[in-house]
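Summary for the lay section of the report: proteins are chains of building blocks that fold into shapes. Here we show the chain for Ribosome biogenesis protein NOP53 and then a coded description of the shape we predicted for it.
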Amino acid sequence: MHHRLACNKHHQKKTKKKKRIMAAARRLKRVIASQPGFLNLKSTSDPADLVSSRRKRVNKNKKKNWNKHSDINDVEEFLEDVRLQERTTGGLLSEKSDDSLFFLDIGQPKKTEETAEPVERKRKKKASRPLRIDLILQHDSLVPPPKDVLAYQQPNAKKIRRIAQKAEQLAAKGVVPRRQKQLLKRRPVAKTTKKAVTEANNNPDREYYDIWGLETKDSGDPWYLQQTGKKLVKRPERLNEKPSVLPAVEVIAPGGSYNPDIFSHQALLQEAHEVEVKKQKEEDKIERQLAVNKADTATEETIFREQVEGLVEEENEEETVHNEDEEDVAVGGIALGEKKTERQRKREKAVRIKEQQRLAERRQTGQRQQLFQLRSIKVSIRQQEQKTKAKQKQRKAKQEAQKAQPRRLGRLKFQAPDLEVQLSDELAGTLRRLKPEGSVAKDRFKSLQKRNLIEPRERAKFKRRYKLKYVEKRAFREIT
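The coded shape description reads as follows.
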């Protein structure tokens, strides 16, 4: 126990002595660092930090610690200095020449002695200096702007370069392109010399020019004007044609007047009668086509036969089997035909060559005989031409007749309106008792359809989405 207490006292004395030595060393470092000639090796300016701070142990293997525990102030200062030199001088000072940085000061230049003769002093115009606002807005950096890469790019540059190389190769061989040939073949434009003196207005030979006209006076190559867009493309003649030759307003027949002549009225009635008869015939034709023949109607006997058909065994099974055997034998005989000999092949070849020679001789004989038939051939050709001309006339007449007919423009066909005609007992002697018929709007609508300006249409059918629901209200029940 006594030995242990002695050891503890010795250890405490030893630690106190070590602390006093370390404190004296720190005090010595602090005094040395405060001296004016001391060179600081670290970036910190506080001398107390040199003594008190300890070195931090950092793992430099990790990338996140590189910027955090690395001193890059010297690099940033250097880069900032380089940027400042580029902004102010347009480049690094070390790369500038001496003449651009220095100049030789030789004093003010001596003025030439003025002559004794008095000279009138001229007022010197003050040089107009830029405004202060303009100076502020000016670009104060000498660094050139970055190159715009998009401004130097061309669409299809590779294709254009390849075409130019091919044109150079053809030019080296002496081949002229097709477009160049067309330009060389075109006639040179006669250059019109400008008149020095304008013509008088009262000159009778002066060319007339309408300043309000639509046509422009173009004195140039038509092809060049068309390609450059200075001359409009010629409008095709077919676009100027009307869709129908019918007039916009058709005049009714004389029999449609309020007080018509008896013959013209009867002619109009006959025309209306023919239209109605034609409609009736079409309806009768449809009824006949849809009519059912009583002889073709099914009876109980025919229905029973149809149900029993295929159930009764056929009696001629043996005959069919016998016929099938005969057919098999015939087919087998054809398949097992004998092979032709060399002599038979030669004989067939000679017969075939002889037949070809006979046909060739017959063809030559026919051609020689045609020489003696020139007159009849000419007559037949003339008759054929007459038939062709007659067919052309018929075709043209048919086309002209079709121009007056409405074309099929849409899903529906054009339905001609009914003739507006009054019977003999309905005629009125005066306009006061005249009964109006038809509608002006419907007449114009049908006229547009007939002249192929609009397609035939039908009135849209209203289809109710939901069924009507009748509800008996309380007030109605109270009244009843």
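Put simply, here is one thing we learned. The radius of gyration is 59 Å.
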